Amino acid sequence: MKNPSKILLIVALFAFTSLSLFAQVKTVTVIKAGRLIDTVNGRVLENQTIIVEGETIKAVGPNLAVPAGANVIDLSRMTVIPGLTDSHVHITGQAGGDYYDGLFRKSFIDEAVGAHIYARRTLDAGFTTVRNVGAGPFVDVVLKRAIDRGEIVGPRIIPATMYIGSTGSHGDLNGFSPWIGDRTPPEMSGLADGVEEVRKKVRYLIKNGAEVIKFGATAGVLSEEASVGAPQYSQEEMNAIVAEAKLHGIKVCAHAHGTEGIKMAIKAGVDSIEHGSFLDAEGIRMMKERGTYLSADIYNDDYILAEYAKFNTPQKILDKEKLVGRTQRENFKKAVQAGVKIAYGTDAGVYPHGWNAKQCSKRVECGMTP
Fold it and tell me: For residue range 244-280, what is the model confidence (pLDDT) as tens digits?
């Protein structure tokens, strides 16, 4: 009788070899595009063939030969565009329902349960990469990893995890009794004060999956602190946040509405200013000199003023939005005209996910090309 151990070994080796060969075979997909938007050269190309091997685009051109066995997607009557990118989303949640329910009757666990819905809506809207700039403790990191493993459908996510903010800032709970507060461990919040604390917070977030750092340079709109634009970190604290992130090769974005806070964040070396509502001529000049991007959410003013009263949102917040929205658009237009680098950031989550492209028309109104 032949040695059964040798037979099992041969079978195992054959199975392993077969699996290895199978893993090396990449699915080939061919897309026939009636029109293709060439974003590099600013052209619309007719009757293009796109050949995709696995997850890589291998060739684009007219009348390319279709490889044998390829899966063919016929979009010959449609326009095909590259995957879009949104540099400012909150993909783990969405405004709606009662304002106070969101604050006091839900937790980051609710975020985790519903996040996959918003990820799918974002991808279905054509946005294949997003920068998530604020979520409950590591919810966006876990969501990203589930998408990367192919367990759920969604865009590529660059997670910031938690928003870094000072005590009493836009990132804190304001307007309520001091007896009301968050019960998660202190390190699992974004609150940090002083140079050493903010450095430690940056390290902690990067350790646990942050691929970009976001901090609050100024007050904000959708929170109940009195100001909408006052600086909320010192220059030294902002410098420390940026310097620590840069040591790790991580980019930094700053939530900044107010004029002075915007300029402080630019001086600190941030890669982008988020919102930029009260950006002035000096701030524009500084951004141009340093190559700082402006990521301004110039659509959502329409949605907030039309819908947020229905969500039982405090009047203080609605009044702040009225103060900010139109001014933000005017200053965004000035930045565009001056040649400041512009990132496409929508703040989706403040308004419904999947509506990310609604901002496109607002940008054209402000002088950008379609």
Answer: 999 999 999 999 999 999 999 999 999 999 999 999 9
Nearest to 223 by CA among 190, 264, 195: 190
Closest C-alpha among 86, 82, 80 to residue 353: 86
Alpha-carbon distance 1 to 78, whole Å?
65
Across the chain, what does the average pLDDT equal?
91
Write down the pTM of the prediction.
Answer: 0.88
Classify domain 84-365 at the CATH topology level: TIM Barrel (3.20.20)
Residue spans of the domains in the chain: they are: 6-80, 84-365
Kindly indicate whether the domain formed by 6-80 is annotated with CATH number 2.30.40.10. yes
* CA 13, 15, 20, 24 torsion-angle sign: positive
Question: At residue 14, does pLDDT exceed 50?
Answer: no
How far apart are alpha carbons 192 and 198 in whole angstroms?
5
- Rounded alpha-carbon distances, angstroms, from residue 117 to 130, 142, 291, 319, 349: 15, 14, 35, 31, 12
